[in-house]
Structure formats: C-alpha cells, structure tokens
Amino acid sequence: MIDFNLIPLLPEIFLSLIGMGLLIVGVSEGNRSTRVICWAAAAGFAIAALILLGVGWETRSVLNGMFVMDKFAGFMKLLILIGLIASVALSVRYLVQEGMERFEFPILIIFAGIGMMIMVSANNLLALYMGLELQALSLYVLAAFQRNSVRSSEAGIKYFVLGALSSGMLLFGMSLIYGFTGSIDFGVIGRTLGELNAIPFGVTFGLVFMLAGLAFKISAVPFHMWTPDVYQGAPTAVTALFAIVPKVAAFALLMRLLFEPFMALSDQWLQIIYFLSLMSMVVGAFAAIAQDNIKRLLAYSSIGNMGYALIGIVAGTASGAGAVVLYLMIYMVMTAGVFAVVLSMRRQGLAVYKISDLSGLSKTAPTLAYAMAILMFSMSGIPPAAGFFGKLLVFNAAVTEGYYILATLGILTSVVAAYYYLRVIKVMFFDEPIDEFDKDMPFARRAVLLISILFVLGFVIKPSVFIENSLSAAASLFTG
C-alpha cells in the first residue's frame, strides 16, 4: 500500500496551488498584474516557509518511500525559500525597468522552487528526475525571458542544449544503476550495494554519468562551460536567481545521493569529487582575473565557490557535510547582496555591467560602495566576515580527514581569487569617479542588501548558532 500521508508535502502542495491560482489571475488580468503576482509569490514563499517549520522535521518517508522528510531536507528547503524570496524581491523593479513586465515571470520562479524542494526530498531516482526537470524547464524559459535581446535568447538556447545533454547523461546513469540493483529506491540501492563484496563496473559507470549530470547543475569544472555565457546573457534578475538558489538545491541532492544510496561507493566517487573540487577552484580563480564584465566575474566566482563547497563532500563525514551546508548558506546570502548592487548599476535608465563602471563609486554613492566592499571582503574569505568562517569549516573538515593537498590548494586559489575581489574594491575607492548611477534604488533591493550586510558582519557575534544548526541538519544524512 502506498502511504498517502501528505503532511510532509504541505509546503510543495501549497506552492503548487499558489502557482496555479496566480496563473489564473495572470491570464485574467494580463501583464498589468505582474507586480501584484510578484509580491504574492514572495508572500507564498514566506507562508510555505512557515508551513515547513510547522510540519516537523523528524525523519519519515511518504508516497511509498519516494519522498523523504528529515532535518536536512527541512533546513535546505528553508534556505531555498529564503533565497526565492530574495530573488523575487530583487526582480520586481528590474522587470519594470527593462520592459519585461510579464506575469509568467514570478509563476515560473514558483514552479522552479517546487522542483528544487522536490529535489531536496527525493528518495527515489524517479522523484529526483521529476524535481530536477521541473526546476530546469522553468529556468530554461527564464534565461531566454528577454525576448527582444539576442544575448538572452542565446543564453536560453545554450542553457537548454547543454541542460538537455546533462539530463541525458543523468538518465543514462540512472538506467545503469537500476539495471544492476533492480531498484530506483535510494534505500534499496544503498542496501544492495552495501551487501556486495565487489562493486560491479557498470554501477561505477552509472554513478559517473549521474555525477556528470549533477556537476552541470552546480557548474563544476569541466561541466561549467554554460555558466559565464548564461550569467552574462540572461536578464540580470534571472542571473541573480541562478546564482542564489538552484545550486543550493543541486548540492542538497548531490549530498543525499552520495551519503545515502552510494555511500558504499565512496572510494570511487571521492576521486571524482576531488577532481571536480580542485579543477573548479583553479578555473574559478584564474579565469575570473581576465574578466571585465561583473556578471561574468561572478559566474567564475560561482564556479570557484562550488569547488570550495565540494571540499566538504570530499571529507565524507558529518562535519564535512555540515560545513557544506554552512558554506552554501553564507554564499547564498552574500550573492543576494552582491546582485542587489549589480542590479543598481544603471545610468540614465540603462544597465551597465563593466567593472570599470564602478569607478569612483565611493565618491558618487558611498553607501553602495561600502556595502559592495564588505561583500567582496567576505567573498574573498577575509575575517571577520562570514565568508571566512565558511571556508574555515570546509578546510578544517578536509584537514581532519587528511586531505592536506586539497586544503592547501584551496587556500592558495582563495588567495588568487582575492585579487579579483579586491580589484573591484580598488576600482570603487581609488579610480577617478565617472557619471553617477541612477538614485532610484527600490526599497526591496535596499532591504535585501541591508539583510545581507547585517548577516555578513553579524555572523562573527554568534557563529555557533548557524554552525550548530548546519551540523545538526547534515547529521541526519548519516543517522538516517
């Protein structure tokens, strides 16, 4: 009998109803309802977060084991919902400024969010794929949302083609896993692999294909090729969404896969994750140096940061997984703040994206300049900002397990990456000022920036609260 207890699914069910309801409103009222639908979507995410906090995070599975709820899923879903609220808040004014006021925009974000939440709670290969594709299909459309822009259309096509390729690789890997284990259920796969004296080559082969598909989703090298072009070409509000939320969901899915059904293959996947981590850090650090477009710089920064987060998975322990959760939380908040500044880079109503456009910002818009400087210091891992603690924990997890070379190279690439973060600060504070940015920074954007700055600076006051919650959430992956 299938367990139809739907209590753990209430946040997803609520968002589905909100999404369909707002779709009816949008069709009835047309594009003039876009702003109302945006704020209704943000309110929907906030209510879903409250429902999530109320459903209880004790470990239980429903729908015949396809959907699991535990402390890890609850914590990661909460992060995703917060990130979605920030993304919608950042996009409302942008849609007006760019003439993109279409009611489908926030609705696509809602359905992408539902897909992300399903990914986090997937306990079955079919549920995994359903969540992944619901998210991906929504994001493909969002990347090409600015229909009168060649760059946006190009970004959408590139993301779709490469995304379809990664989905194909993922499906091929899943079919091999099913063929060798006889099940698509995570628990059965884990038990079957745990009982084998020797792991069949086909299972390892299938896992490699699955990891390749998921590496695309987190833009880890060598599956990162889409990231700079899509970040640059997509509408900036969409780029902010890409940078803030989907990687949290993809990482949560990756961690659940590796630490639950495929823990018996840790000797095999550790080598792959080690390579992905190392190459992502190196490429992210060195490729960003040559960039003059702030969105492309942030794309390579994202690639590098995913490499640092992967170090915690390489450690293969509960403390390493907890370090990854904390790192993703800090990265998400920092990125939201940075994009609040990037979205405010406008002159005479037109968006500008070159790093040189920030010249002398400390004189023309000192508040914006100091906020950006704080976020850049945090991203480069300089204490006492929050970014320092994120890197400290992942490096500590690696060193504890004896991965000295990876931790050392992580520190060295972090030093290299600090160059391009500090270059942004140098341009803002030491270059000659040019024309001022437009002054009409909306309240929602100010609020996101302020919360981000308060988090980055205030983290040092009580870091134990966030660290303990992250470690506790990750521990549920290992205690089952």
Compile the SSE list and pairings.
Blueprint: H1 10-29, H2 34-54, E1 60-62, E2 67-69, H3 71-97, H4 104-121, H5 125-143, H6 150-181, H7 186-195, H8 201-217, H9 227-233, H10 236-244, H11 246-259, H12 266-287, H13 294-315, H14 318-342, E3 346-347, E4 350-351, H15 361-364, H16 366-379, H17 386-400, H18 404-430, H19 443-458, H20 463-479
Antiparallel strand pairs: 1-2, 3-4
Helix pairs in contact: 1-2, 1-4, 2-3, 2-4, 3-4, 3-10, 3-11, 3-14, 3-20, 4-5, 4-11, 5-6, 6-8, 6-9, 8-12, 9-10, 9-13, 10-14, 11-14, 12-13, 12-18, 13-14, 13-17, 13-18, 14-16, 14-17, 14-19, 14-20, 16-18, 16-19, 17-18
What is the structure about, briefly put?
With 480 residues, the chain is an all-alpha fold.
Explain what this protein looks like in three dimensions.
The structure is a single chain. This protein is mainly α and 480 residues long. It has one domain (7-479). Helices cover 74% and strands 2% of the residues. It is built from 20 helices and 4 strands. The strands form 2 sheets. A two-stranded antiparallel ribbon has the order 1-2. The longest helix is centred in the middle third of the chain and has 32 residues, at 150-181.
